[in-house]
Amino acid sequence: MNIPINLFMWVMAFLPIIVLLFLLIKCGWGATEAAPVGLLITIFTGIFFYKADITLIAAESAKGIWNALIILLIVWTAILMYQVGDEAKAFLVIRNGMRKLLPNELLLVLAMGWIFESFLQGITGFGVPVAVGAPLLMGIGVTPLWAVIIPLFGQAWGNTFGTLGAAWDSLAMSANLAVGSPEYWMTALWTAGFIWFWTVIAGFAFCWFYGKGKAIKKGLPAVLILSTIQGGGELLLSQVNTTISCFVPACISLIVILLLGRTKMYREDWSIEDSPIMNRKASSGADSSEELPDMTLVQAFVPYFVLSAITLIVLVVKPINSFLGQISFGFSFPETVTGYGYVNAAVEKFSALTPFTHASMFLFVSAMIGLIYYKKNGWIKEGGVKRVFVKSISMTMPSGIAVIGLVIMSKIMDGTGQTQVLANGIANVLGNIYVILAPFVGLLGTFMTGSNMSSNILFGGFQMTTANLLHLDPAPILGAQSAGGAIGSAVSPSKIILGTTTAGILGSEGEVLKRIILITVPVAIIIGLILFAVVGI
């Protein structure tokens, strides 16, 4: 790569991201309006400053459209699943049933916004916990904005070792870590350690959101227990089996929070009446005006039980996974090169979609089984099936522009070398101080691509090379990369759109980002400072 790494080129690479953040946060634009502007700037800088030709721009745009369509499949199927439950009034049953099971409202919010999302992240990922979690939280009375924010925090800790270790495997691959080597296990240890720190912070953030100091005092025991199970369990299992090191603690925490609901501290009715995240008016109004169907809590959760079972069977049982994974399709792309010699290798089957092992298939099958089950029991009335499909399509379409624009933007930045210049520029200027920003490189990768796995693929090798050039231990730096990527999943615009779409507040992405960034950035800074204290001598 012969791209000049200087201040001007670095600023040009950073310009699309700066504009995007400015429009989202400062101007209050929705992602649907901001994404096309960021995309146009990316194309402009790619052509005029990074010497990309039209063929390269077209190829990367096509890759982006393909990736965006795969994301939109998840959006639509997650909304479809939500509409099935909404049509059957299952969320009213879930709200009332969970309140009886967990009368402490803070514990209820933790269960529905943190623990259940952790479970979903452990097996599915790909934004499913956010898309599914937002309507569930609204069902227990959380306002739409906070119903999006809470799952974004709740799923983040599982982004590296979740989805049965997909993002971790990509880090090991891009950094050339031999499976089972001392470097492999040490990197996993550092990664899990940094993520544990984030898990504790996220737990206390939920309490602060709900009721500030009073809620932190009440939730302290639960947060310490649950974060120890999740973060500590993941750290221990990361030294044994990285594939299940998120899934197993997530399952245990799901059981433990229900047991906590029976303890003396949490078994009584408790709530903060003026909690800023709860919609008391809507909640009380629903109680008096909405007629509950003759449905049990277990029956209301049937689609989610089916989702969990299908996902586990397909992803964990190797013969089934191998058989269903044989069917895949994707598009081939030729090699493209910029005027600076930045090469995008030819690919035979780009980002191949394996439909029968993809999260969208799990969601679709679960939604269909739920639809049939609810209709058979009379909970979906005449015309309900048509309404479910019409509403799910109409809710998905507006988010399409934003998702497609953002993903194309990230692909063009990557394909023209702008992403690489951003990271290299930071490392070259800062020297050993670079390690303070190592988590931000991971965060930046996830912010741009919407995926910790993609961030690790983009920057795993770069982080390893930089560590070696600076004569530093690469294990903690790689750990900070993936931990930063996990934290970045909470501020990823594409994941935020998943939540705002299913919560019915598309266009509020800037408001969501504004609140989340106040916690994610300081945590990334602290991790960077810890890293510098350890290796940046």
Secondary structure blueprint with pairings:
Layout lengths: L6 H20 L4 H18 L5 H34 L2 H12 L3 H19 L4 H12 L4 H13 L5 H13 L7 H56 L9 H14 L19 H10 L7 H4 L1 H15 L1 H7 L4 E5 L2 E2 L5 E2 L2 E7 L5 H18 L7 H32 L2 H13 L3 H16 L2 H18 L4 H15 L4 H10 L6 H27 L2
Antiparallel strand pairs: 1-4, 2-3
Helix pairs in contact: 1-2, 1-17, 1-22, 2-16, 3-6, 3-15, 3-16, 5-6, 5-7, 5-8, 5-9, 5-10, 6-7, 6-21, 7-9, 7-21, 7-22, 8-19, 9-10, 9-20, 13-14, 13-15, 16-21, 17-18, 17-19, 18-19, 18-20, 18-22, 19-20, 20-22
Major beta sheet, strand line-up: 1-4
Helix content: over 70%
Structural class, judged by helices and strands?
mainly alpha
Largest sheet, described in full?
A: 2 strands, antiparallel
Number of strands: 4
Query: What is the percentage of strand-forming residues?
Result: under 5%
Reading the helices and strands in chain order gives HHHHHHHHHHHHHHEEEEHHHHHHHH
Total count of helical runs of at least 4 residues: 22
Gross morphology is globular
What is the arithmetic mean of pLDDT? Answer: 88
In angstroms, what is the radius of gyration?
Answer: 23 Å
Q: What are the segments in which pLDDT stays under 50 over at least 5 consecutive residues? A: 283-288
Distance between the termini: 30 Å
